[in-house]
Structures are given as C-alpha cells and as structure tokens.
Amino acid sequence: MFIDDVERVLISEEEIDKRCKEIGAQISKDYSGKTPVVLGLLKGSIPFMAELIKHLSIDCEIEFMAVSSYSGTESNGDVKIVKDLDRSIIGEDVIIVEDIVDTGKTLEKVKELLYSKGANSVTVASLLDKPDRRIIDIEAEYVGFVIPNEFVVGFGLDFNQKYRNLPFVGVLKEECYK
Ligand code: 5GP
Question: CATH number, domain at 28?
Fold first, then answer.
C-alpha cells in the first residue's frame, strides 16, 4: 500500500487543521471589507485550498492556475504556465495559494504575471516553506509550517504525481525515490 512508502510523518492532519483555522482567521481579519480572489496553483494546493477557504469568514472568489517546474524530486527551474487565468483580475486583491515555497521561482513568475494583468495586490498563502532552498528573495505572507530541506509528500504534494492524497505531510522511504 502507498502508505507503507512513508518513512515518517512530519506534520499531522490535526496540526494542519489547526493551522488552517489560524491562517483563515488571519486572512479574514487582514481582508476585512474586501473580496479577494483566492488563486490556487494546481495541483498541489488543492487540499490546503479546500481546508483554508472553509475558515474564511469574508466573501471571496476562487480561481485556479496550473504551473509546472518539477519532475521527480528536482525542479528544472523553468517555470511554465500550463493553465492561465480565464478571467480579468484588473483591480483585484489576489491571494495565491501554494503547497510549498522552495526556490521561490514559481511565486516570482506568478506574482509578476498577476501584476502585469492588473491585480491591485498579490499576497501568498503557502502550506509549507523551505527557506534553506530559496534562490529568489521572496516570502509568503501566510505560512503554515517552516520545514527543513527535505523532500516531502502528502496533503497535495506529490512524487511523480503520487501521494497527493495522503492526509498528512511526510517523508518517503529512500528506496521509493532513489
Ligand atoms: P519553487 O518554484 O518555489 O522552487 O517550487 C515550488 C514547487 O516545487 C511547489 O509548488 C512544489 O510543486 C514543488 N516542490 C518544492 N519542494 C517540494 C517538496 O519537498 N516536495 C514536493 N512534492 N514538491 C516540492
């Protein structure tokens, strides 16, 4: 079973639930009186996005974009927009929802694109943050958990498209990706 491929759980389902509630409350406070466009980056943001928006006590709209840069456990550094927005975001306050900020290249590219399309403001909510790997000087305004430089899967994060459905964030056994 795929769950047997997990060496250890890094962040439990309970911890994620609790943190999503806290971030949801913070965003609701910060965006009080506004209707932000909550923009999930497919596919990794899906579970985090679903959990987070349940805890927003303000009006919001949701949208998705797909961006690719990873293959296996390594980013190839070349960020491609696979699915662009199909609506105007001129004057909108956008909150990008990401699974993890690693090198920062994805966020740099998406933020640049959103501002070029006329967004009024762009912030980032990321479930995970791996600051040790950062190449671009960019930070998410809302971070679930800061993690060490390890390749993680679960709660949206994949290895070759698998393990996204794990309800926690964990580390795979070495033999599963070597
Ligand atoms: P960045 O552009 O910041 O280097 O990378 C962001 C993307 O890389 C994330 O959205 C995610 O898809 C992928 N990524 C970075 N680190 C990890 C990791 O530890 N595990 C998995 N599964 N994906 C990662």
Answer: 3.40.50.2020
Q: Which of 141, 153, 163 is nearest to 97 (CA)?
A: 141
Query: Ligand 1 within 6 A of 170 CB?
Result: no
Host domain of residue 100: 13-149
- What amino acid is encoded at 121 in this protein? S
CA torsion 26-85-42-35 (nearest 10°) is: 20
Structural domain contains residue 170: no
Using the atom order of ligand 1, give the atom closest to the CA of residue 158.
22
Let me know if 137 is a catalytic residue.
no
Candidate list 102, 129, 137, 158, residue with the active-site label = 102
Pocket test for ligand 1, best of 39, 78, 81, 157 (most atoms within 8 A of CB): 157
Q: Which atom of ligand 1 is nearest to the CA of 135?
A: 4
Residue 178 pLDDT greater than 90, yes or no: no
Domain count, the chain: 1
For the Cβ of 69 lying below 6 angstroms from any atom of ligand 1, the answer is yes
Rounded-to-integer distance, Cα 117 and Cα 84, Å = 11
pLDDT (tens digit per residue) in 120-167? 999 999 999 999 999 999 999 999 999 999 999 999 999 999 999 999
Task: Record the pTM.
Answer: 0.94
Would residue 177 count as lying in a domain? no
